[in-house]
Structures are given as C-alpha cells and as structure tokens.
Amino acid sequence: MATPPKNRYLSRSSVSVPREERTLWQIAWLIGECTLAVLLLIGIAYGIYVTYQRLTQQAFFPLKRVIIAEPLRYGDMADISDIIRHHHQKDLLHMDVSLLAGEIQQLDWIAKAGVYKRWPDAVEIKLAERVPIVRWGKEGFLDASGTPFTVPDSDKLRGLFKLQGPDGYEQQVLQYYEDIAPWLAARHLDVARLTLDPRLVWHVELSGGTDIILGRDQLNERLKKLVVVNDKVIKPYHPYIDAIDLRYHDGFSVRWKAGVRPVTTEAKDKTKEKK
User: CA nearest 185: which of 151, 165, 161?
Assistant: First the structure.
C-alpha cells in the first residue's frame, strides 16, 4: 500500500518543556489567581462598607416635626425639646423610638412616655405626666403615689398643701397627711405645713407660722390637745408665739418669738386701772 506524501504544513515538531519549569510556571499562575481573587474580595468589601456608611450617615427621612399628643399641664416642653435635640439619631429610618422614649421617661415629672414614628418626617410623643397633689420641700412636689418630682411653679400650684421630710420618707409623710387632713379640716384648724424633721419628730405649722411640735408618738392625742389648747388658750397669742411643744403628758410649753414679753390677763387689768 502506498504511503501518502507528508504535508509539511500539518506536521509540527514537539518541544519538550522540563518538568521543573512547568511546575514553577503553574505555581506563579496560581499565585497570580489567588492575588487577583483577594484583591477582588477586598474591593467588594470596601464597596459594601462605603455603601453602608452612606446609608447610615445620610438622612433619607430627616426628623422635621414633633407631635405632642396632648398639651402639657404641668411639665416644661423645653425639657422634651432638649432631649430630642441631643438625641444621637435624627433620621426617622434609623431612629430607635423605644430608646428615645426611655430617655424622655428619665425626666422625673414623666410617669410614662411613648414615641411613635409618623412617616415621612415626624414622631408623635404620648406623655403621662405626674400630677402634683402636694408640695414637697422647697421646690418639689409629690404625686398620689408619693413619688417626688419637680415642675415649673405656677399660680395653680402655689395653693397646694406643704409637706417636708427627709429623702426616702415621702410616702410616709404623705400617708400621715392624708390620714389627718379630713380631721383638721372638720375642726377648722388652719394648718399650713406638715413636717417630719431629720430626727423623725413631727411638726405642724399653723398658717401664722407657729411651729407645733407633736413628737414621735401619740400623734393623734396630741393633735386633739392642740385643738383644745388653740381654741381655749393660745389663739389670741399666735402672732407672738414661735413654737408650742405638746410632748408633755399633762401640758405644753411655749417658746415666744424673740423680743416678745408675754403679758398676763392680770397685768393687762392693772394697766387699765392705772389709766
């Protein structure tokens, strides 16, 4: 059988590449691929980071309005505005309303606070204020539970009864006042203040400023004694009396105001006779 002629264009010569050179080339190629993959991953991660930063820092729904569900009766709106102004998040999309409500509820005159998003640019705030029923100390007030708080003073609050006592005794002082207030009112005893002093001694201050010392025990009996003594003996002398101590078993003592010299009825009669 005849052999076909060789085509010089189809024939090729094989070149043998040493195994060591082939291995080094493959390693270099692999390193290049890995490096490229790492750079690609870094680029993707950086792009994600930049996008996240822009999304979190840019305010897509900036807070523009604050809605108070009901007008405040006692508290100061400036306190609420100050908290919102200094809140770390001003974008409605990222705002944590429960966190903001917690910050508002830190105000001592707020009993409960709720914050709700109102898209696209507002939050609505619902507040339950503490209602002052008596004054406490120089500038504070107590609510019905005996919780102390402060609100701006006003004409409608100046007529509240005054209580005073050590920190931590608010509920005890309020409870005793609520126990004796109807009794005092029925006897038309004009009491301006009830005080528990640092030694835990009870005092009643009359409207004229006279300090009535009741002591630590037998308070009801001493209040009854005050009514009898006030009506029958000391009422005409209120402007001259600094304090009355009712802690004596069978009587009481009087401390006169500085510069006052008590005058007995007999002395008054003698003065009239001389005239």
Answer: 161
Per DSSP, 152 falls in state -
Q: What is the pTM of this model?
A: 0.72
| Separation CA 259–CA 240 (nearest Å) | 9
Q: 114 and 126 in contact (C-beta within 8 Å)?
A: yes
Relative to beta strand 110-118, strand 134-136 is unpaired
Whole-angstrom distance, CA of residue 80 vs CA of residue 117: 16
Between CA 136 and CA 150 the distance in angstroms is 9
**Paired strand residues for 241:** 256
Q: Average pLDDT of each block of 10 consecutive residues along the chain (275 residues)?
A: 54 52 73 84 78 62 89 94 87 89 96 94 95 96 97 93 97 96 87 96 92 94 89 83 91 88 58 54
Amino acid at 88: H
